[in-house]
Amino acid sequence: MKLAVAAIVKNEADCLPEWLAYHRLVGASHFLIADNSSTDGTRELLAERAGRGELTLLDVPTAGRAPPQLGAYDRLLAACPQDIDVLAFIDADEFLLPMAEAGTSPSGEPSGPSLLPWLETRFADDSVGAVVLNWACFGSAGEVFREEGLVTERFTRRASMSFGPNRHYKSLVRPGWVAGFDNPHHVRLSRGRHVDARGDPLRFRQDREGRERRGLSEAVVWEGARVNHYIVKSVEEFLAGKSKRGSAAKAGYVKGRQYFERHDRNDEVCERAASLAPRLKAAMAAPGEASSPRARAPEWPLGVMRRLSRRVREAVGPTDAAPVHRWALDYPSDQREPWCLASGRVVQGWVLLPAEMAEAASRLRIVARWLPEHEVRHPLEIKRPDVIEAVLNERPEGHPQLHCGFRFTVPPRLAHFHLELLLEDRCWPLQEVRCQPAQADAAGSLKVIEGRSGWLFLDNDTNASVDQYRGRVHLTSRGLMAWQAYLSGLGRLAETVGCPWAMLVAPAKETVMGPRYHPQVQGQSQPIDQLLALPEAAGVVHPVAALQALGDDAFIRTDTHWTQRGAMAASVELAASLGLARPSVEPVFAGDRYRTRAMGGDLGNKLTPRQTCEAAMLRSFSHLKYRVYDNGLPNFGRLLVIEYPEALMEGTCLIFGSSSTSSMFHFLSRLFRRVIFIHSAGNLDPAVVEATRPDYLVVQTNARFLVQVPALDQSLSGMIRDKVARLSVAERERVDERRLMAEPSRLEAWGLAAWERTLEERLPARRNA
């Protein structure tokens, strides 16, 4: 089988050598490129390679205001050599990625992953005219400027599978079967059919009126192959490239700040394409590759430069020199082995201010930032006699700054982060730190802090739990804006179905119990305080006072979660926020009976020997008797329905919640006749809200998760598919055991039939209803 790749390009000289070499590496034998009046050396680079027979080059200038892309595709299709079996239409920031692992060649040498065996399988069916591959959108990974290295190795953080734009697909076609192009994503076939990467018939995404949205698939399929879409790259590359070029498919479409912020998703680390970097660099260094004409620097208009400067200032603060006499970073370092603790990778160094500014050292903060929504601020609180001694050799009169050292931890799997210097309201960049992600920390994975009187607390995790408690984590202006947009969107979504809404934030255990039992001192401000100060936060419930009133009965000593009595108190506060009268709610639980039993919990079970405590468990009521549907998935993607006919209120309460919601089911099920729960950590799927038309809408998350803003457009179908794809064989068996089926007519009545079908497509179950 022979594969060719077709694309229209404009001013892509900086990345085209990598793009061409990469696709040769995965099996492409020819390229068809339409140049759209490039001015940066792209045309010359392509012309030389066309002269060597590597590609077919066409000139496709923009005619008037007509977008050039579809016309270019028509010409590229017509120019396709007769011996090409499959032609892929993609863009220069899209990379076709085989998902199969690398194999071995006949000689026994490792062979790079190839698309060709998979393509032969998909096109073995003579009825298949096109195979569509979904996007996997990659974010900026926090990069502001264009750094050295390949695109595929610099950007290794992508959106989750359920991210809406991943529904876009690109088409791989039998050239002779194409009748035309509906849009850059979808081809019309003169014969044959479209299938997805799994070989199943393509199902289009539909709009609210049930019309097909060609170019968007209903399911995101990454099995076999996908398209890695480096959709924004760094801020500099975005502004100088995609934003400046505009759209080749839609006249007047400007890809600006909103486009960048919507698509700059860095949810998960993915290094499949990056793992090819050594082989790819070797291919690019082969004879003939280096003879390509050097790309000319793009001519940036003054307006682009101003926008870039403004964006850089927003990201890293003023660019004048930091007021530092000397500073150094001890860890991480290329000269030292990584230093890891249970709480993460150690970052250690020192900052010495000029002598005349030494009094300001107590107000100075070292800022670590790895995601745009939050930052961690650490004081200079460590004495460094080694540094002071070195300064004394330079200044015999001494230096008045006694504390100049800092030490903190960042997540061990972090590949790079930014260090900045903050003094009052001024911020200066110090260094972008790059390091190899640690596969496991040297101290193990205990992540438990032992407090007073046997109380256990979570150590720093990826959400910097301890640093949040100490008041060192702050939501950035971008994070606060994202929360404002989320809360406003939640309110609008509730308005569309005409129901009240509330957001329940489960307080961190440290916030409630920490002042008495935590070894660290609580800080003055946490992200939850910033959130509650927003004008859009009127519907946010953070029941600290209600939990504190329970004393030691609020949380489990050896677990991060609240007790069942704590869950009851939170349920009462939530109900009051939704408009239920307290005098009616509180008597519902007044007769509850509890009994104590020993339990380890998610913290106690990590210790050796295992540490347990006595916890009060509800014995007079169980929601388990009233489950009527449960898809059985663990955590994200779980869908559960509880119906209790004697509940206080008629109607449905729809909850997009987290693990903290589970202990509330015993109480919420007695307040609302039907409870529909989706485990999503507060991420919303508007399609579920529209389908179920709830009487009450609730989102529930935990305070320590607030540094990551939930999404307003998360797909439950995508979450289900993503979860099933990650399940082991043993986990699939456990899901089948836990599933509780419901009749299709009941699922239709609840508005949930579509999501049961999604699961059935991936994981058929034994019927037990």
Short description:
It comes from Halomonas nitroreducens. The chain has 769 residues and is of the alpha+beta class. It has three domains: 3-284, Alpha-Beta Complex (Spore Coat Polysaccharide Biosynthesis Protein SpsA, Chain A); 326-445, Immunoglobulin-like, CATH 2.60.40; 466-762, no CATH class.
For the structure shown, list the relevant keywords.
Immunoglobulin-like, glycosyltransferase activity, 3 domains, alpha+beta, 25 helices, nine-stranded mixed sheet, signal
Relative strand content: 25-35%
- How many structural domains does the protein architecture include? 3
Q: What is the rounded Rg? A: 29 Å
Straight-line N-to-C gap: 49 Å
Q: How many E strands?
A: 38
How many separate helices?
A: 25
In terms of per-residue confidence, which ranges show pLDDT below 50 for 5 or more consecutive residues? 102-111, 290-319, 440-444
Q: Helix coverage percent of residues?
A: 25-40%
Structural class: alpha+beta
Q: Report the sheet with the most strands, covering strand number, pairing sense and barrel closure.
A: 9 strands, mixed
What is the 3D form? Answer: globular
Give the overall average pLDDT.
87
